[in-house]
Amino acid sequence: MMKHYQYMYYWLVIWLQYANSVPATSATMLLIICNGFNLVALIAVIKYGLGVPLYLSSKLVAVAIGVILCMFNFFSLEDKLEEIHENYKEEPEETQAKSELYLIVYIVVSVLLLTVAICVQQMILHRG
């Protein structure tokens, strides 16, 4: 059963490292593992407290995490684009090109991570 949650940890590390440019340091890993245990507790509360099956409670928690991370990524993207604009006020064409490039990379990474998340979810459902 712990294997299922390890996939979630790895997915969160990948998301944080690439989508938010946060290096996957030992502190980040520790934070994610601690949050992982909180997720396990939350899933257990949903499963046993509400009588929801494990796969459905895992899915509900995964969707909630996805929504929170998407919001976090959106605001992070906005901050980074604003920072690019502040740093390159003298060269508006270069600024626009960098902003567009960052947006394209962000969208591609988000789509790839969504694909990975769907694949992991399917693996969990088929094994569970």
From TrEMBL:
The chain crosses the membrane at residues 29-48, 60-77, 101-120. The keyword Transmembrane helix applies. It comes from the Bacteria. Keywords: Membrane, Transmembrane, Transmembrane helix. This is Uncharacterized protein. It comes from Xanthocytophaga flava.
